[in-house]
Amino acid sequence: MTTETTPRERRTALRGLPGEPLLEVAGLEVATAAGVKLLHGMELAVPAGARVGIVGESGSGKSMTAAAVLGLLPDGVRATAGSVRLRDRELSGLPERELRAIRGREISIVYQNAVTSLNPLMPVGEQIARVCRTHTGVSKEAARERTVELLDRLGIADARSRANDYPHHFSGGMAQRVAIAMALICDPALLIADEPTTGLDATIQAQVLDVIDGSVREREAALLLISHDLGVIRAMCDHVAVVYAGELLEFGATEEVLGNPLSPYTAGLVRCLEPADGEIAYIPGRIPAPGTPRRGCVFAPRCEQATDSCRTRQPELSELRPHHWASCHHQ
Amino acid sequence: MPPSVTSETTAAPVLELRELRKTFAPRGLLARRRGVAVPAVDGIDLRLEQGSTTALVGESGSGKSTLARLILHLHKADSGEILFGGEQVQGLSERDFRRFRADVQMVFQNPLTSFDPMHTIGSSIKETMRLRPPAGDPDARVRELLEEAGLSARFADLRPRDVSGGELQRAGIARALSVTPKLVVMDEPTSALDMSIQGQVLELLARLQRDHDLTYLIVTHDLRTVRMVAERVVVMYLGQVVEEGPTHEVFDDPRHPYTRGLLYAHDLADRDAERDANVRIRGSLRYPTADERGCRLVGRCPLAVDRCREPQPLAETGPDRRARCWRGAQGPLDTAGA
Questions:
Q1: Residues pairing with A53 in the sheet
Q2: Using a CB-CB distance cutoff of 8 angstroms, which residues of chain A are in contact with residue B261?
């Protein structure tokens, strides 16, 4: 990451949300070494204790945004502009050592496939206890006790003995609980969950979402939930960020955004979520590949309402209704 | 609404399964824990009428994918019959079996792994087409198929990695159609695609079905897809059919607690504690032991009582509807669960 060239003073356009700001992402640009931009001025705000969902299709930049927040961008990809603030602290450009103290302690993450994100060669209890000790310096015994207690609270039966099992001994849903325990052991202020239930069966998905819901609520932690499934976001989050091709298209309270979508893209997603019986709902076209030249609104090529001005002039993200932001010329 | 199957259909169904069974030998840790080999497919009867779309729904371990593979002869059934156009598939001569291979095509969940990465899309389609060579120029036929699937002819020269997931799935459908099949079996055809794109593929499938009078069997866990395209739904749990019938009837008035719990789990909105206690499927998949002969959901079902430990037949719950639950056979499942 660079420190010298990027303007760090930028604040997000999403200001004035109720609650104390916890995470703010403003004008974030991320690009590959070859100069292909993956995020084009991403904006995001997570107030303390809030539950914000990021919804978007593959290639929208939702996981890239989370990776940039954590300073875990893939090799060769770096943030080239913009700001990531945690409370009053700028994270973008922080040295790895300082980021490491924040990751797992203040911000932690749960990924889609828990089994692959856990160390296969170490009992799960030990992995969780290590995270606890690294960040808090408690004794080995205390860390172990906290781990067992947390596994138990997250619905793992016989937690004391299960803590000695290895990741492959757990089913998909149970492994996801282990990963959640590891993410929560240090009581972070923000839990990022990146497609935490994708690939799980529906009945198991509902259980894991309940575990996330309950444990975040209990700790008064904020949740940033990333999903391609608007249904999951609607059930879990009080705010929703609709992202598309590396940009934020719409942001606001979930009920408001889904009830009165301002961007035709959001309106299309809502239609896809709840098609009428026998109706086949979809959005025509496809998301532009990274590196596609941009002019005007990024969604215009797929938008049924697009006009000449949409194709030539980029709309700005603005607060079009109270606490409801969108970038669309039609509003 | 999709057209419903007319009751006066007298011709043999495109596909009929009778008492189909397949057990895999217990292997590995999980099986040893189970102690007993539970059939992956345990006595399935199924009829697919010409031009219809049936969805086979279930979660991991339901046996739905195994059933699809049995139909395609990718696995051999232990017992039971598979009839295609009224003919026993097991007894087909080599030549007729080749015809069967072309008549029944498969579309896979992940188009990236079902296409050879080294070959162009065009040459992959031509490879399949060898099962039933077209009358004219194969290259012209490939272009025609791609265009019919909503792709331009230039896709014939592209490789899988050069196109999007939705486009490759269209190419997979074009490939399946290249041998003019009668039945297309699809294993999670849209699950790897974004929600906004899934409908594009489903609409293509609906159009091709109308144009070619195709019969579809869609294996999926996604109830949204089922609602959109399937007029009939068959719900499986641990190798058995637990409920089947017209999709909108089954979804509006499920008669098996598993169907109802599945619908509830999908519908993440509208939860409350009382409904949760009476509807929700608890825990995770549990295989029955040898001496358990009752309903296989018994340990997870919120409505389970002693009677559920007795064998449960698949009983009529309405015209063209069946469910494997004594409660559902008596009437609608009371939401209050009493």
A1: A225, A240
A2: 203
The whole-angstrom distance between B315's CA and the closest CA on chain A is 25
Q: What pairs with residue B322 in β-bridges?
A: B244, B316
**B131 CB within 8 Å of a chain A CB:** no
Q: Which residues contact A2 (CB under 8 A, 6 or more apart)?
A: A78, A79, A80, A93
Question: Which amino acid is it at A167?
Answer: P
User: Tokens standing for A242?
Assistant: 């609709």
Distance CA B295, CA B285 (A): 13
Burial of B261 (0-12, 13-18, 19+ CB in 10 A): buried
State the alpha helices, DSSP H only, in chain A: 62-70, 96-102, 114-117, 124-136, 140-153, 159-162, 172-184, 202-219, 230-236, 254-259, 264-273, 308-312
Q: Cβ distance B238 to B288 under 8 Å?
A: yes
Residue B162 touches chain A, beta carbons under 8 Å: no
Does B93 touch chain A if contact means CB atoms closer than 8 Å? no
Q: Which of B269, B28, B240, B278 is nearest to A273 (CA)?
A: B269
Instruction: Give residues with Cβ within 8 angstroms of B175, minimum separation 6.
Output: B124, B125, B128, B145
In chain B, which residue's Cα lies nearest the Cα of A232? B268
pLDDT by residue (tens digit) across B222-256? 999 999 999 999 999 999 999 999 999 999 999 99
Q: What is the pLDDT of residue A18?
A: 86
Contact between chains at A282 and B203 (C-beta distance less than 8 A): yes
Residues of B in contact with A228 (CB under 8 A): 194-195
Widest CA span in chain B? 66
Count of residues in chain A: 331
pLDDT reading at B119 higher than 90: yes
pLDDT (tens digit, 9 = 90+) per residue, A176-232?
A: 999 999 999 999 999 999 999 988 888 889 989 999 999 999 999 999 999 999 999
User: Who contacts A64 (Cβ-Cβ below 8 Å, separation ≥6)?
Assistant: A30, A38, A39, A73, A77, A246
Which of A73, A68, A57 shows the shortest CA–CA distance to A27? A68
Domains of chain A, residue spans: 7-106+188-326, 116-187
Contact state of B195 with A280 under an 8 Å Cβ cutoff = no
| pLDDT the model gives residue A6 | 45
Tokens 């397949």 -> residue: B22
At how many degrees (to 10) do helices A202-219 and B257-266 cross? Answer: 50
Element (H, E) at A228: none
Return the CATH number of the domain spanning residue range A7-106+188-326.
3.40.50.300
How confident is the model at residue B337, as a pLDDT? 43
ipTM, interface predicted TM-score of the complex:
0.83
B261: contact with A, CB 8 A cutoff: yes
pLDDT for res B274: 81
Yes or no, beta carbons of B227 and A284 under 8 Å apart = no
Of A57, A203, A279, the CB nearest to B196: A57
pLDDT above 70: residue B35: no
| Start-end of H helices in chain B | 28-34, 64-71, 94-103, 111-114, 121-129, 138-148, 165-177, 195-212, 223-229, 247-252, 257-266, 273-279, 326-330
Is any Cβ of chain A less than 8 angstroms from the Cβ of B188?
no
